[in-house]
Amino acid sequence: MLFDSHTHLGNRQFDDDLTVVLQRAKEAGVSRMVVPATDLESTRKCLSLAEAHDQLRVAVGVHPCDVDSVIGEDWIHELKILAQHPKVTAIGEIGLDYFHSPPSGWELARWKAHQARCLELQLNLAVELGLNVILHNRESWEDLTCIVRQFDGKLRGVFHCYTGTLEEAEPLLAAGHVISFTGIVSFKNPGHVAQTASQVPDGHFMLETDAPYLAPMPHRGKRCEPAYVADTARAVAKLRKQTLEDIAEKTTQTALHFFHGFE
Which residues contact 37 (CB under 8 A, 6 or more apart)? Predict the structure, then answer.
């Protein structure tokens, strides 16, 4: 069975056909899924979805591109309450994003500082609640890893949608963190990530779709969905010269060890 460790089923692109999407996932052998939130509103929506579907668990948090939706520190108390829901398995999706421009009215340095402060608050919450974290990085690798290293030994993180080299990942893996691969590994020109996927040791990586984004081949250009994690698994199996069944079993076990609350 397969495990989609990162799928945004709370996205409005799934509002009209989620039941069908979940059925296709089941038919593709995808038995468990983690649904990350992006802000407090989406956290509540994702929790409602998980209450209705046993195969779903939720990561609660405020995405770095959405931290303009929170000010001060009162919001972290609301997130703490939401994070104690029985369907919550992690804090996420959190991190830093320097690729997208700051929202209107935000100067770049202030925007980066606000992202960093929101990340630190959420990492502290994860430590307090004993939850692992789902980490977002986009053109922010040095700053992100610097902040995360301050929490080494206190929590574990998955660096989702990993596209870097194995050499970059190795210090993080040694500290107990893991990485996760999307459909990018199946692209014609996947960059460094193909070599990384071929060499990273078993037990240190998971699979994800990041649906509705980054659909793997042969679905590239279409809306991505959890069933397509099977295509990503096939691509990784080919790169590693392992069987699909072996990849499915090992990545599922890694995900079950990382995310709590699944039966």
Answer: 10, 43, 45, 46, 58, 59, 60, 61, 62, 63, 92, 93
Total domains in the fold of the chain: 1
CATH number, domain of 36, equals: 3.20.20.140
Could you tell me the two tokens for 20? 């069908």
| Domain annotation covers residue 28 | yes
- Looking at the chain, the number of H-run helices and the number of E-run strands are 9, 8
C-alpha distance across the termini of the chain, in Å: 13
Show the DSSP H helices in the chain as ranges: 18-27, 40-52, 74-83, 108-129, 141-149, 166-174, 193-199, 229-240, 244-258
Whether pLDDT at 139 is above 80:
yes
Residue 263 lies in a domain: no
Domain of 22 in residue numbering reads as 2-258
Q: How confident is the model at residue 263 (pLDDT cuts 50, 70, 90)?
A: confident
